[in-house]
């Protein structure tokens, strides 16, 4: 049964190839919720901070179903900033989709349906939002989850390496993902993927490096 009064403010729903996580390359429906309490310096989805359109939960599910895809990614903004996100995730799981949630790690993940792959993006020093990390989320991570860390500098890399060692994240979650900051307008300088790759190889870190595949294919075109 769907809660008849559950509604969500959405920036967009579209179908594309998943560009990140261990599901990279899978045809995926992206449900982008509006709003975010963070302002990361390298954010590439600032257009989702405000605006959007309000939909009933049933209408969101109908829109997702029309794309006839197996995978669904709920993202933002910060999707957990909307109370209706929890009901949406449960409803998507009940409908049989493979569901992932992209969240900043600044909001509590405890009430997220256990069937959801939670991709938790803990913030590095260069993000400007290091203090927003909710460290209690570390103990809530399960072996189906993934930790994503966006690396913009050598300082970020050293911080991230210590972070994953201290909390033994490689043994706790399905994957630890390191992503280089990609160039964005009016944002910080990009970190060359080759540079990050060489650091990881030199230090033998137990992480998976990823590059935003969708940007390599479509650039910053909307709807991807």
CATH class type? Alpha Beta
- The radius of gyration computed from the alpha-carbon positions, rounded to a whole number of angstroms, is 17 Å
Helix/strand-derived category reads alpha/beta
Secondary-structure arrangement, i.e. CATH architecture: Alpha-Beta Barrel
Large-scale geometry = globular
Report the sheet with the most strands, covering strand number, pairing sense and barrel closure.
9 strands, mixed
Give unreliable regions as ranges: none
Number of helices: 7
Output the helix-strand order.
Answer: EEEHEHEEHEHHEHEH
Describe this structure in words.
This protein is an alpha/beta fold and 224 residues long. The chain has a single domain (7-218), classed as Aldolase class I (TIM Barrel), CATH 3.20.20. 26% of the residues lie in helices and 24% in strands. It is built from seven helices and nine strands, in the order βββαβαββαβααβαβα. It has a nine-stranded mixed β-sheet with strand order 3-1-2-4-5-6-7-8-9. The longest helix has 13 residues, at 154-166. The two termini are 32 Å apart. The model has no long low-confidence stretch (mean pLDDT 94).
């Amino acid at each position: 049964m769907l809660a008849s009064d559950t509604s969500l403010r959405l920036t967009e729903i579209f179908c594309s190839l998943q560009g990140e996580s261990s599901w990279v390359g899978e045809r995926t429906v992206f449900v982008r919720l509006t709003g975010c309490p963070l302002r990361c310096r390298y954010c590439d989805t600032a257009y989702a901070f405000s605006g959007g359109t309000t939909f009933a939960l049933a209408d969101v599910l109908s829109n997702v179903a029309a794309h006839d895809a197996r995978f669904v990614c709920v993202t933002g903004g910060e999707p957990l900033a909307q109370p209706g996100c929890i009901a949406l995730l449960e409803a998507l799981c009940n409908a049989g989709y493979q569901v992932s949630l992209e969240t900043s790690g600044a909001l509590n993940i405890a009430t997220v349906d256990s069937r959801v792959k939670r991709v938790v993006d803990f913030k590095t020093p260069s993000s400007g939002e290091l203090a927003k990390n909710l460290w209690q989320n570390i103990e809530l991570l399960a072996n189906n989850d993934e930790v994503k860390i966006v690396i913009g500098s050598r300082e970020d890399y050293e911080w991230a390496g210590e972070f994953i060692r201290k909390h033994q994240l490689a043994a706790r979650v399905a994957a630890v993902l390191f992503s280089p900051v990609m160039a964005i307008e009016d944002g910080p300088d990009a970190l060359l993927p080759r540079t990050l790759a060489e650091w990881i190889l030199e230090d033998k870190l137990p992480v998976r490096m990823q590059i935003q595949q969708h940007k390599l294919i479509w650039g910053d075109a909307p709807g991807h």
